[in-house]
């Protein structure tokens, strides 16, 4: 099938919604960009290590075995404002009351019908403006057609985390989700996302952090073995703002998580991290593009992947420091831990620097469990499989440590350990 | 307790022979010392006894309390009561010292059909024992051996020994890198554990540790075998005359 046919067939799966004038215009622009450029075919440099074809497919996704643990969402014991999606569709009846000081949440479809909604100028714009450097037409597809999602405006320091819980119940389900989030001046929020969205999903999040704003974002992706997900986080950071985003991924046939971070204001900080555990036919790709356009800013990328039984891990990370972004502090580390010889870790770290007074470092390693450490643990009576788990967790801890909240850090570590112990029993 | 019979060992990777027929019997409650020049095979012996990978036993047997241990995994030997205080304790970033100690203790208790200690019970015991070795709360909280000084690492080894209460304790150059005060602290820790049912194999290059931990027997190792055995006086002989004279005598 020629490239244009793939794009055409995919587009034919959806219809453009009729909303406000501005939303209609934004969607039409995204669609025209998609039509002009087509969906990725896998020959692009940007898709060198991960095959995008199943994201493009107009055929139904693979049938998923539903993971029963979806009934017990990981963050259920945290006091939070909960928003529920079932197979990619917002379920307001099972969501919490949305009235909380400092918070305005609306379904995307509703916001887009409002001729003067605050999300005018944000929806499709943060995504759209990042298309020039590298084309991301799967995100354009999302902007054109996604009707599910949330618009979230944070106007103050929100006392409870906002928890978006995805329940995946339909074995063959496909979802497009689009969230628009604006953190206003001096405001702060914690945003949690957990669970499997659907068998195949394409999820875009547009984030705007204004002066002095901060967001802690922690995401735990769905555990179904066959699921396919592509996610984009597009973010703009203004003066003194701080974005911390962490993702835990265990399982999934195919995952591509992209972070596009534009640091536009001075003294801003962006930390993105991920802990990834993959087995068998698992393929996981983190693609990060951080642009420093203002001086005195800091960015960190910490990604750790544990792979076994032929699993594949990919990391593409770029730090672009523009002229004038002096005193940039950029750090990037990606590491693969191979539990056997069949697995693969592919890393492409890149630095592109046009300012002369910056500190930027990047490192990438690929190794196996340290036999000396393993012997030390087992010589104290810890059985080998458990000792191995301890070392795997220790490896992942450096990424988990990127999470600010100790409570959440512990929940994540505990969940990982439980999964590992269960694996020995099965 | 421990019977080593004609133990011959080579490296798995390069067919290099390191132990050439080691014979040694340690009875319950006894303290044996092994001395010998660098490279004579002392650490290798301790690793083979505790079950490290990478060695081939080409001949000989080792039994602990009558059980042949050579086919056992290292954690099974540990549960049976084998303990090695490492010459170079391993740093493990990301694993907390407390978690490590508690997991080790409870794994052994489980293997021996005993109930696991709760977090609170464990904490009480470990604080008590750590205090005697002047190990503070901060050291317990840090990742295993990471950022510990040489002396702190060795004290941490003894703390593990005190917590796990093994039957057969092997100490590999526990004195190296310690100043006099630290050595006394470590020796006191070891002596406190001496009992009729617990045996020690103390490996050392120098005699000075044996002033503090007085052995019942001393063996001299060279080129992968024990060339001479005697009582504590043999250690003094080494101290006064050096190894070369002894080696020449036994050649
Ligand atoms: N893993 C190894 N690879 C190569 N040579 C080794 C290895 N382990 C031990 N050896 C060699 O075996 C001999 C004995 O070493 P070791 O047991 O460490 O001696 P000691 O502890 O008495 O100083 C030395 O010649 C050493 O170089
Ligand atoms: Mg040695």
Characterise this structure:
The complex is a heterodimer of chains A (426) and B (251). Chain A is α/β, with parallel strands linked by helices. Chain A has one domain (3-371). Helices cover 22% and strands 38% of the residues of chain A. In chain A, the strands form 2 sheets. In chain A, strands 2-1-5-7-9-11-13-15-17-19 form a 10-stranded mixed sheet, with helices on one face. In chain A, strands 3-4-6-8-10-12-14-16-18 form a 9-stranded mixed sheet. In chain A, α2 runs antiparallel to α6 (137-145), α7 (371-378) crosses α8 (384-400) and α8 (384-400) packs antiparallel against α9. Chain A starts with a helix and ends with a helix. The model of chain A has no long low-confidence stretch (mean pLDDT 94). Chain B is 40% helix and 28% strand. Chain B starts with a strand and ends with a helix. In chain B, strands 6-9-10-3-11-12 form a 6-stranded mixed sheet, with helices on both faces. A 4-stranded antiparallel sheet of chain B has the order 2-1-4-5, covered by helices on one side. Chain B has a two-stranded antiparallel ribbon with strand order 7-8. The longest helix of chain B has 18 residues, at 233-250. Chain B has helices at residues 42-50, 74-80, 97-111, 119-132, 137-141, 150-164, 180-193, 209-212, 233-250; strands at residues 2-11, 17-26, 31-35, 55-64, 67-68, 82-85, 92-96, 143-144, 168-172, 199-204, 217-222, 225-230. Chain B has 9 helices and 12 strands. Chain B has one domain (2-250): P-loop containing nucleotide triphosphate hydrolases (Rossmann fold). Classes of the chains: A alpha/beta (426), B alpha/beta (251). The A-B interface holds A 371-373, 375-384, 386-387, 390-391, 393-395, 397-398 and B 50-53, 73-75, 77-79, 83-84, 86, 89-90, 92-95, 99-100, 103-105, 107-108, 111, 143-144, 160, 164. Bound molecules: adenosine-5'-diphosphate and magnesium ion (MG). Adenosine-5'-diphosphate is lined by residues 11, 18, 36, 38-44 of chain B.
């Amino acid at each position: 099938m020629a490239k244009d046919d793939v794009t055409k067939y995919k587009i034919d799966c959806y219809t453009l919604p009729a909303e406000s004038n501005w939303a209609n215009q934004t969607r039409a622009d995204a669609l025209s960009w998609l039509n002009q450029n087509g969906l990725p075919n896998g020959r692009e440099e940007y898709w060198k290590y991960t095959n995008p074809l199943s994201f493009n497919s107009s055929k139904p996704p693979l049938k998923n075995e539903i993971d029963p643990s979806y009934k017990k969402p990981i963050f259920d014991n945290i006091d939070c404002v909960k928003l529920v999606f079932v197979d990619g569709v917002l379920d307001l009846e099972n969501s919490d009351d949305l009235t909380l000081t400092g918070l305005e949440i609306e379904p995307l479809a509703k916001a887009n019908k409002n001729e003067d909604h605050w999300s005018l100028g944000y929806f499709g714009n943060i995504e759209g403006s990042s298309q020039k450097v590298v084309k991301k037409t799967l995100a354009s597809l999302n902007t054109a057609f996604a009707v599910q999602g949330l618009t979230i405006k944070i106007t103050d320091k929100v006392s409870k985390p906002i928890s978006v819980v995805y329940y995946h119940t339909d074995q063959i389900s496909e979802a497009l989700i689009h969230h628009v989030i604006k953190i206003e001046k001096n405001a702060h929020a914690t945003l949690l996302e957990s669970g499997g969205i659907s068998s195949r999903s394409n999820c875009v999040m547009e984030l705007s952090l204004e002066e002095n704003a901060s967001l802690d974002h922690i995401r735990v992706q769905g555990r179904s073995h066959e699921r396919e997900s592509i996610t984009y986080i597009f973010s703009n950071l203004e003066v003194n703002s701080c974005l911390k985003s962490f993702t835990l991924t265990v399982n999934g046939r195919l995952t591509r998580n992209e972070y596009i971070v534009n640091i536009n204001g001075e003294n801003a900080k962006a930390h993105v991290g991920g802990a990834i555990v993959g087995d068998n036919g698992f393929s996981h790709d983190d693609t990060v593009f951080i642009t420093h356009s203002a001086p005195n800013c800091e960015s960190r990328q910490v990604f750790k992947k544990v792979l076994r039984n032929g699993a594949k891990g990919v990391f593409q990370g770029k730090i672009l420091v523009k002229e004038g972004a002096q005193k940039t502090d950029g750090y990037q580390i990606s590491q693969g831990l191979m539990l056997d010889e069949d697995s693969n870790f592919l890393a492409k770290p890149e630095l592109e620097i046009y300012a002369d007074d910056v500190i930027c470092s990047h490192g990438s390693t690929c190794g196996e469990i340290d036999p000396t450490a393993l012997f030390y643990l087992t010589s104290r009576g810890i059985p080998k499989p458990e000792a191995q788990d301890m070392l795997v967790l220790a490896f992942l801890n450096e990424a988990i440590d990127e999470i600010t909240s100790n409570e959440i850090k512990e929940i994540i570590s505990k969940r990982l350990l439980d999964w590992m112990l269960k694996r020995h029993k099965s | 307790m421990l019977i080593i019979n004609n133990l011959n060992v080579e490296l798995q990777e390069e067919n290099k022979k390191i132990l050439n027929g080691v014979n040694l019997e340690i009875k319950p409650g006894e303290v044996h010392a092994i001395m010998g020049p660098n490279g004579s095979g002392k650490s290798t012996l301790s690793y083979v006894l505790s079950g490290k990978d990478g060695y081939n036993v080409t001949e000989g047997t080792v039994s602990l309390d009558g059980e042949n241990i050579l086919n056992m995994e290292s954690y099974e030997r540990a549960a049976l009561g084998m303990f090695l205080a490492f010459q170079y304790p391993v740093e493990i970033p990301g694993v907390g010292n407390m978690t490590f100690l508690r997991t080790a203790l409870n794994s052994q208790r489980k293997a021996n059909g005993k109930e696991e200690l709760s977090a609170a019970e464990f904490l009480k015991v470990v604080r008590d024992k750590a205090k005697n070795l002047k190990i503070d709360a901060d050291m317990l909280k840090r990742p295993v051996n990471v950022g510990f000084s040489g002396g702190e690492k060795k004290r941490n080894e003894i703390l593990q020994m005190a917590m796990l209460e093994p039957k057969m304790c092997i100490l590999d150059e526990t004195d190296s890198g310690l100043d006099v005060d630290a050595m006394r602290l470590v020796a006191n820790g070891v002596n406190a554990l001496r009992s009729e049912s617990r045996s020690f194999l103390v490996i050392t290059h120098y005699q000075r540790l044996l002033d503090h931990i007085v052995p019942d027997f001393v063996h001299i190792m060279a080129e992968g075998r024990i060339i001479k055995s005697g009582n504590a006086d043999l250690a003094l002989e080494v101290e006064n005359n050096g190894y070369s004279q002894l080696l020449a005598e036994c050649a």
